[in-house]
């Protein structure tokens, strides 16, 4: 694993020296997890379609003794995500869906995990301090302080393969729905589609793993006076959701120990952009604490 982490096109900054591990990175079925335009870019920066034979996911999960599967497939991997979710259902492994394909927030999928008594968390993870959580917080602030938001945008640029993958706009449908719903949920009356734009803007190779977010919010306060806000946020993209993912893993393990199945609504609302139930972040944090201490079941 330590070799794979340092292999191109990975460009995340090294936070710690990683000791040599016996864990082997194996290739699963590609399905729709690879956008063909990736091959048009220099090979030292892009994914190359591997020639190895994909492993059987169910067998690999059983052989490894895994209890929880963390899904970080590329945006737009609809078929591939469903494939891994099915494997979890067949093997009893919990599913934490960190990308924007709607599994845990889909009632039919949620019921299947509930019926099998398998805890799951999703969908589309929030960063620790990222574009969506900042946008949500400011939207709630405007609303709580009585400022009417007229229009807003969120534009993001980056230079990792996540941004390269998202140059294929056909893969962005669920991503835009997820990010937009996360912000709209903080408003009493959602903005009309033409007054809110949230999504990736462009791929800038030299930014590497640095993600830059530009926010603009235009509103009206008392007497209709204008209130305009512009913000620039710069973060290292890849590690930004790691701590949140660890929180989700720990809560998922608690649910497994307590024999709780189906979506975990509290940690999903706290950690995911498109959870089964949208809950204000401060309330979701309190519910997670209650879940950890066994006061609430989910």
The CA-CA distance between the termini, in Å, is 33 Å
Spatial arrangement of strands, main beta sheet: 1-2-3-8
User: What percent strand?
Assistant: 15-25%
Could you give the order of the helices and strands? Answer: HHEHEHEHEHHEEEHEHH
- Considering DSSP H and I runs of 4 or more, what fraction of the residues is helical? 25-40%
Mean pLDDT equals: 93
Low-confidence stretches: none
What class, by secondary structure content? Answer: alpha/beta
Given the structure, what is the number of helices? 10
Rg over alpha carbons? 20 Å
Q: Based on DSSP secondary structure assignment, what is the total number of beta strands?
A: 8
For the largest beta-sheet, the strand count, sense and barrel status come to: 4 strands, parallel
Task: Summarize, please.
34% of the residues lie in helices and 18% in strands.
Describe the structure.
The protein is α/β, with parallel strands linked by helices and 298 residues long. Helix content is 34%, strand content 18%. It contains ten helices and eight strands. It has helices spanning 2-5, 57-64, 78-91, 107-115, 131-144, 161-165, 173-184, 242-257, 265-271, 281-292; strands at residues 68-71, 94-97, 119-121, 148-158, 196-203, 210-220, 226-236, 262-263. The strands form two sheets. The protein has a four-stranded parallel sheet, sandwiched between helices. Strands 5-4-6-7 form a four-stranded mixed sheet. Helix 2 packs across helix 3 (78-91), helix 5 packs parallel to helix 7 and helix 9 crosses helix 10 (281-292). It is globular and about 65 Å long. The two termini are 33 Å apart. The mean pLDDT is 93.
């Amino acid at each position: 694993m330590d070799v794979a982490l340092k292999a191109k096109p990975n460009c995340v900054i090294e936070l710690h020296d990683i000791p040599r591990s016996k864990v082997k990175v194996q290739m699963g079925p590609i399905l729709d997890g690879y956008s063909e335009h990736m091959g048009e870019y220099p090979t030292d920066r892009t994914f190359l379609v591997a020639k190895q034979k994909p492993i059987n996911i169910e067998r690999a999960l059983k052989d490894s003794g895994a209890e929880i599967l963390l899904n970080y497939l590329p945006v737009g991997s609809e078929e591939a995500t469903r494939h891994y979710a099915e494997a979890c259902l067949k093997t009893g492994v919990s599913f934490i869906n960190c990308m924007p394909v709607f599994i845990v927030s889909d009632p039919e999928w949620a019921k299947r995990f509930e019926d099998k008594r398998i805890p799951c968390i999703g969908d589309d993870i929030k960063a620790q301090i990222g574009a969506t959580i900042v946008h949500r917080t400011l939207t709630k602030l405007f609303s709580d302080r009585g400022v009417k938001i007229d229009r807003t945008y969120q534009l993001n640029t980056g230079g990792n393969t996540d941004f390269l993958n998202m140059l294929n706009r056909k893969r962005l449908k669920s991503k835009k729905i997820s990010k937009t719903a996360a912000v709209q949920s903080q408003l009493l009356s959602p903005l009309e589609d033409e007054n809110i734009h949230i999504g990736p803007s462009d791929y800038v190779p030299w930014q590497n793993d640095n993600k830059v977010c530009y926010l603009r919010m235009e509103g009206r306060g008392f007497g209709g006076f204008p209130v305009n806000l512009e913000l620039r946020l710069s973060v290292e993209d890849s590690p930004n959701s790691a701590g949140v993912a660890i929180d989700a893993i720990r809560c998922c393990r608690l649910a497994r120990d307590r024999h709780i199945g189906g979506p975990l609504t509290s940690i999903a609302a706290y950690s995911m952009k498109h959870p089964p139930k949208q809950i204000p972040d401060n309330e979701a944090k309190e519910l997670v604490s209650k879940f950890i201490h066994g006061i609430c079941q989910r």
